[in-house]
Amino acid sequence: MSKAIQITAIKGMNDILPPESARWEWLESIVRRVMAEYAYRNVRTPVMESTQLFTRGLGEVTDIVEKEMYSFQDRQDKHGDADHLSLRPENTAGLVRAVAEHNLLYDGGKRLYYMGPMFRRERPQRGRYRQFHQIGAEALGFRGPEVDAELILLAVALWRELGIQNWRLELNSLGQPDERREHRAALIAYLEAHADQLDEDARRRLHSNPLRILDTKNPAMQALVEGAPQLIDYLGDASRRHFEAVQAILAANGVEWRINPRLVRGLDYYNLTVFEFITESLGAQGTICGGGRYDYLIEQIGGKPAPAVGWALGVERVLELLKEEGVHILDPVPDAYAVIPDAAALPQAMRLLNQLRALGVAVQMHAGTAEGMGSMKGQFKKADGSGARFALIFGADELAVGEVTVKALRDGAGAQTRQSLAEPSVWADILKSTA
């Protein structure tokens, strides 16, 4: 019989295992708490959507749609028709689709957030994977600059709660469509006049998406883009007032920023305020959170016109940044470990353990083998390795009088007492790690 070929995970799609998974749970718990403090409520959308949602919402000439989406044709129905589907490369379009489809804005604006996996066919590297995870906050139905500022302050509050300090905030305004059209014409004329300096990617984008040329990472084009017309110079009075109001609120809250005229973001749906949080600790993948206002997206995908603003952060990048900054996250350990010398004690022991768990005590039970429960020495070694603060010893002598021995494994190691099996509620609190 031939040896079976081992099946491994798809390149760029990673397993998240203990103890690393504890870091994810810790991050997610803080996100939920901070979102609740700002009155944002959770939304969960499918990981697969109609391809048309992304081509219409993100823009057909964006890198995501052109190069990176996992798209395929579904099976044909009885009429021979088949839908074109894509794994979501980001979640704003899906969230907006859900809001429009279920008419969530019928009674006013909504503050929402999401967490989950996204998919892009990229070359895997540190902080950039084919299955990656985002956390996003979106405020829909609100037109004022105060909501732009609120979302930025929400991200700042999250960095503070996580213990992240090495970040900077960059702002820009993309204005409104008519202002962008005027700037676009001037930008194309400028770039055409310097066509000999454009690289292949810039020449391809010159007439389809010239704004993205300003975000080039090509060192040879930096001087060219520095001299290009700046969109901020084409803003009308209303756009300027909106942008200035956002900055005034940030200043009043002690948040520092710098204006980056080249900040355009990678998706077509943005208008007015755009922003990014950037760190120097992660090299090329330095953007840990980005977003902005997208007042026309809901209408673009078939909903009733409504303003909106939001951001998304990369979970993998934030976790990498936490490591770089030395933020220590403890792996959760049980409060107690049950040492069971004889399998005959299992019914009584497991009854007590379930009673303790109901009282909020985390207990790990020793599991035996076909040969028996194992030696006491071996069980105590596993108890110590578990990180538990106490061992619960279900010896024959203890059980004969309806008791269990509680032995300290950390503070006051070796000290032990006997406690009643019949009244765990009286002594359970001594086991809790928070006690």
TrEMBL record:
Say if the entry is tagged with keyword Nucleotide-binding. yes
The protein's annotated catalytic reaction(s) are: tRNA(His) + L-histidine + ATP = L-histidyl-tRNA(His) + AMP + diphosphate + H(+)
Positions bound to L-histidine: 90-92, 120, 134, 138, 265, 269-270
Cross-referenced NCBIfam families? hisS
User: Which family does the UniProt entry place this protein in?
Assistant: Belongs to the class-II aminoacyl-tRNA synthetase family.
Organism per entry: Ottowia testudinis
State whether it acts alone or in a complex, and with which partners, per the record: Homodimer.
**Listed EC numbers:** 6.1.1.21
Query: What's the short name of a Pfam family annotated to this entry?
Result: tRNA-synt_His
Which EC class heads this enzyme's classification?
A: ligase
Gene Ontology annotations for the cellular component aspect, listed alphabetically: cytoplasm
Aminoacyl-transfer RNA synthetases class-II family profile domain location is 27-341
List the protein's name. Histidine--tRNA ligase
Its main subcellular localisation, reduced to a broad class, is: cytoplasm
Q: Which GO terms describe its biological process?
A: histidyl-tRNA aminoacylation
Return the SUPFAM superfamilies for the record: Class II aaRS ABD-related (SSF52954), Class II aaRS and biotin synthetases (SSF55681)
Q: Does the keyword rRNA processing apply?
A: no
Q: Which UniProt keywords apply?
A: Aminoacyl-tRNA synthetase, ATP-binding, Cytoplasm, Ligase, Nucleotide-binding, Protein biosynthesis
Q: MF terms per GO, please?
A: ATP binding; histidine-tRNA ligase activity
Q: Where in or outside the cell is it found?
A: Cytoplasm
